[in-house]
Amino acid sequence: MGSSIIITMFTGKGGVGKTTCAAAAALHYASLGKETIAISTDATPSLSHIFELTHKEKPAIVKEFLSINELGMNEVMEMWDKKFGAEVYAVFSSLVSIDYSRFLEFMTSVLPGLSDEFMLDYIKELNVSDEYENIIWDTAPLGQTLALLETPALLRKHLRMAPRVYSKLKLGHKSKKPIMDILRHWEEASTEIMDFIRKKVRFNIVTIPEALAVEQLASTFHKLDEYGLTVQQLIINNVIKGKDSDFLRAKAEQQKSYIETIHDSYSNMEVVELPMFPYELKGLERLKEIDILLFKNTQ
Ligand SMILES: Nc1ncnc2c1ncn2[C@@H]1O[C@H](COP(=O)(O)OP(=O)(O)OP(=O)(O)O)[C@@H](O)[C@H]1O
Ligand SMILES: [Mg+2]
User: Fold this and answer.
1) Rounded distance from Cα 233 to ligand 2 centre (Å)
2) Whose CA is closest to 241, among 183, 165, 293, 283?
3) β partners of residue 235
4) In this structure, which residues have their CB less than 5 angstroms from ion ligand 2?
């Protein structure tokens, strides 16, 4: 199963409807009887809120075939700890006297991309396990997502500096080697993660018909292109459909040119419009409405 897994990522500016779309897509695949997990790498996640879950297990089961997992800093620390923590700490603590919590603090300050790196690693591990057929990846607002894509390169930059740092510490050759090996191992893992994203992740961009959001689209596409990542679907959310009041007519008129611009500029890909609903999109029934619209071209 691992190799045929589908990973779908929703990205876009803050508040445009990424989590709503991610939740609807997760519901879609689960309804087809595919074991699905929606994960969030947002520091202020809202998946459990949208699915109206009160329990906080990680992962938490929403219904048959559908679970969610919101990865926060604690989970990331735990993963890091399991994978490298003990090893790196052993090397470090043989050189300097430092307790473990201060050491963790130090590592995350030296490597700011550490948490994102491990979130990606977690997704990669889900991919090789046979547990799920679909992973839906709900992300933080765009700036953070792009930083996340830059993490492996950032890490490499840090690592290139590492030998100099260690030589400054005037350590004997013997004590330098193990940590460099560990860091090299790390670097290999980052390159692998980037390759993995390129091959496996389907990107969906969510936007709204407003000046700033539409302006930012070009740079988003440019950035993704730079990384060799391709976009599967472009979603225009919050489109006003009703015209039975002056307010709605004015609002719809204002959106019109932006919607046209998007269709013209991105005619080479699937563009889906989602109406603005007069109620909050919470709970399975309402998400079902989004699901139907999002996937109407794939049936
Ligand atoms: N088409 C829509 N009609 C009405 N309300 C919507 C629509 N899409 C999203 N919303 C509402 O807008 C709010 C923001 O949506 P959502 O949380 O999905 O955005 P987001 O892009 O994930 O935000 P963030 O960047 O904070 O993660 C939510 O309250 C959601 O219910
Ligand atoms: Mg969100």
Assistant:
1) 18
2) 293
3) 206, 272
4) 18-19
Residue 103 lies in a domain: no
pLDDT single digits (tens) 250-271? 999 999 999 999 999 999 999 9
Count the alpha carbons within 13 Å of 299 in the hemisphere toward its beta carbon.
8
Cβ(117)–Cβ(152) below 8 Å:
yes
In-domain check, residue 105: no
* Domain range enclosing 160: 2-75+113-294
- The predicted model scores a pTM of 0.82
**CA 153–ligand 2 middle distance (angstroms):** 25
Q: Which residue in 38, 69, 229, 40 sits closest to 150, CA to CA?
A: 229
Distance CA 252, CA 281 (A): 21
Q: How close is the Cα of 238 to the center of ligand 1, in Å?
A: 9
Burial of 155 (0-12, 13-18, 19+ CB in 10 A): buried
Number of structural domains in the chain: 1
Give 36-92 pLDDT, tens digit per residue: 999 987 767 789 999 999 887 888 999 999 999 987 767 766 776 776 666 667 666
> Six-digit token pair at 170?
């005037």
